Amino acid sequence: MVSMLIILIMFNLDDSLGFLLNRAAFAMRRAFEKRLAKHGLTAPQWAILARLWEEDGQSPSVVGRSLHFDRPTITGIVDRLEQKGLIRKARDSRDRRVIRTYLTDKGMALKKQLQPLAQGVNRIASMGISDADVARMKDCLRNIWRNLKA
Known about the structure:
This protein has 7 helices and 2 strands. The protein is mainly alpha-helical. It has a two-stranded antiparallel ribbon with strand order 1-2. The longest helix has 21 residues, at 17-37. It is globular and about 60 Å long. 14% of the residues are buried.
C-alpha cells in the first residue's frame, strides 16, 4: 500500500507516456496542417489522399478503417475531397452496392507537392535523433498501438 502511494505521489504529467505522445502528435499535426493550408487541405484529407496514392480505387469504408476514422468522418472527408475535385466516386462494376473512390488527375498531381511536405515535417521532428533511434521509436509506437488497441 505504501509503495503504491509513493508511485502516485511521484507521478508527473510531463513524464507520462500518453501526455508526451499526445503533445508530440499535436505538434506534428499542427506543423503539417500549416503547410497543407496553402493547398486548402487538412491532415485527415491528406491521409485519405495518401491511402489512395498507395492504392487507388478503394472503398471509403476500407480507407476509413485503415485510418481509424468512423463512418461519418470518412463520409464527410470523402465528400469534401470530391467537392474539391481531388477524387471521384463510382460504383464498383462487380458489386453495385460498393462505392469506390478514385483520384482525379488533380488529386494525383498533388502527390508530388504534398509528399515532400509530410517528409519535411517528419525530418524536422526527428532532428538530432539517429536513424536507428527513429526506427526503434517507430517499432515502440507500433507496439504501444498493438498493446492498447484491444
